Amino acid sequence: MHEDIPEKPLGGLVMTVALKTRMIVGKFNVLLNNAGVLGNQPKHRNIVDFDVNEFDRVMNVNIQGTALGMKHAAHAMIPMGAGCIISISNVAGVMDGLGLHAYTASKHAIVGLTKNAACELGRNGIRFNCIS
User: Fold this and answer.
1) Cross-referenced PANTHER family, in alphabetical order (predicted)?
2) What angle do CA 53, 39, 58 make, to 5 degrees?
3) Domains (ranges, CATH) in the chain?
């Protein structure tokens, strides 16, 4: 099942997808988080010129979309005692100086969020991976 998230309230949409999947398939085994926008940043490439509204938009989609995906997938997976949540980051999430500031910060955050969630939910049989 594929859903585009930018124009809908993120939490409600992710929860709806998880519930639909459980109803149709009977379980929710895997989530592939691929929330990401570059933003309209070329004109704001330098830190002294970046636009705070554009920065917030990129962070909202990239970080909040990923976090909400994890949250609602975990709700479905914890009772089963199993599951796999895969999040897509980018090379900008593990190396510095390769991208625009908001995008790079958001992809670093996805790596950290994935590691932290793995520590928390590994005991529930939920595996986490991050592809950079």
Assistant:
1) 3-OXOACYL-(ACYL-CARRIER-PROTEIN) REDUCTASE (AFU_ORTHOLOGUE AFUA_6G11210), SHORT-CHAIN DEHYDROGENASE REDUCTASE 2A
2) 55
3) 30-131 (3.40.50.720)
Considering only CA atoms, which of 32, 2, 27, 30 is closest in space to residue 17? 2
Give the closest residue to 130 by CA, choosing from 122, 118, 119, 58.
Answer: 118
In sequence order, the 6+-apart residues with CB closer than 8 A to the CB of 51 are: 41, 44
For the chain, what percent of residues have pLDDT higher than 70? 80
Has 42 been annotated as catalytic?
no
- Return the percentage of the chain with pLDDT > 90, whole number: 32
- The one catalytic residue among 28, 55, 103, 128: 103
